[in-house]
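About this split. The held-out portion is used to measure sequence recovery: a designer receives only the structure tokens and must propose an amino acid at every position. Recovery is the fraction of positions where the proposal matches the reference. Here is one held-out target exactly as it appears in the evaluation file.
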């Protein structure tokens, strides 16, 4: 029991409080909101203070990699859509890049430009979903309504191109499944003109909002060295101050032909991770404009036989998705089906670094930190 010293009529006396402090356990998740799916955080609490955090990633195993061993390369592409459903265009691309590297397939320039346009639009759409749910987790409803409103325009562009709004199956080995529809370029430019000033609206609502600052500034600081040691990538890593982006540092497609900046943070806190994604949406708009301006005429897909069989070999390819490094390791034995497919997502690394930075914070802070990592649980299911 704790003894508490009190002052009564100017004299100090000792009283028996009758209370002991004792650590206890709290299960945070799995639920929406807060843990965004099947993730469960086992928290050791001292009152409202988090003393330790143990992530349990649940079980959401769809066996995509094993099923791929019994499918042709073309049949695998729809499976990759499910790998990270908010960035399905990138999932298609990273797998096709690996197959093309093994088979030494030359991609038409028009197809390369279309891929960049689609993936950068998908990046904006993914960041909009993140910003909507991030703000909602912190109690702000208006950004949620705004962001989903803007995302609908991108979904309409995708639907007109490939017929789907979430799982696209659009990027194929050798290019894309079909050319851009008539009027796509005009509608895409109209969206970019409409969307650019709205990013300022998001910032007016959040960036310097006193309540938002109190929930994000100096909360969940992730030092750069710790981020590197845990294999953290993407906006979370750049929020910690490391200017590393695969589009520039291990370039692929036609990204080396475009002019764009890599936003970084300074402190590595929740606010830095927020502002990096806000600025990335601005940069994505710049990239899409340049890709549209330089879009050449010509074929949208290399001519590949239906019985396509790449050479014997193996490779690992990686691209910069909205969450960080997305990779595909493929082994080919020269037949129409791969011997092995291994996919790499970034969300697992982000969740695993969480226990290192939450000690001494409150549960409300943990909600903000987890949301700022933008973890997608199906990406962790392997």
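Reference sequence for scoring:
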């Amino acid at each position: 029991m704790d003894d508490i010293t009190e002052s009564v009529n100017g004299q100090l006396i000792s009283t028996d409080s009758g209370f002991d402090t004792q650590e206890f356990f709290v299960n945070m998740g799995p639920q929406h909101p807060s843990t965004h799916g099947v993730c469960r955080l086992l928290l050791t609490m001292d009152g409202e203070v988090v003393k330790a955090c143990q992530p349990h990633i649940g079980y959401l195993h769809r066996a995509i990699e094993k099923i791929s061993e019994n499918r042709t390369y073309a049949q695998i592409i729809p499976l990759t859509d499910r790998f990270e459903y908010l960035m399905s265009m990138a999932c298609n691309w990273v797998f096709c890049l690996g197959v093309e590297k093994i088979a030494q397939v030359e991609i038409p320039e028009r197809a390369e430009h279309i891929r960049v346009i689609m993936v950068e639009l998908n990046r904006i759409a993914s960041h909009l979903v993140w910003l909507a749910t991030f703000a909602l987790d912190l109690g702000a409803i208006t950004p949620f309504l705004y962001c989903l409103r803007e995302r609908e325009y991108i979904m309409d562009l995708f639907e007109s191109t490939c017929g789907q709004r979430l799982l696209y199956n659009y990027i194929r080995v050798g290019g894309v499944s079909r050319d851009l529809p008539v009027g796509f370029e005009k509608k895409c430019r109209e969206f970019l003109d409409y969307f650019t000033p709205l990013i300022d609206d998001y910032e007016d609502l959040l960036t310097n909002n006193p309540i938002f600052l109190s929930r994000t500034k100096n909360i969940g600081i992730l030092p750069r060295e710790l981020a590197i040691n845990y294999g953290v990538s993407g906006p979370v890593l750049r929020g910690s101050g490391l200017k590393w982006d695969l589009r520039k540092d291990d370039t692929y497609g036609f990204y080396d032909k475009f002019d764009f900046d890599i936003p970084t943070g300074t402190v590595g806190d929740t606010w830095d991770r927020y502002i990096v994604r806000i600025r990335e949406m601005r940069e994505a708009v710049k990239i899409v404009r340049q890709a549209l301006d330089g879009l050449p005429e010509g074929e949208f897909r290399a001519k590949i036989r239906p019985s396509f069989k790449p050479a014997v070999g193996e490779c690992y390819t990686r691209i910069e998705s909205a969450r960080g490094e997305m990779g595909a390791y493929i082994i080919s034995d020269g037949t129409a089906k791969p011997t092995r497919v291994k996919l790499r997502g970034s969300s697992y690394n982000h969740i695993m670094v969480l226990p290192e930075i939450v000690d001494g914070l409150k549960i409300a802070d943990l909600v903000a930190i987890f949301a700022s990592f933008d973890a997608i649980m199906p990406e962790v299911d392997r």
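Annotator remark: The domain at 54-380 is CATH 1.10.645.10 (Cytochrome-c3 Hydrogenase; chain B).
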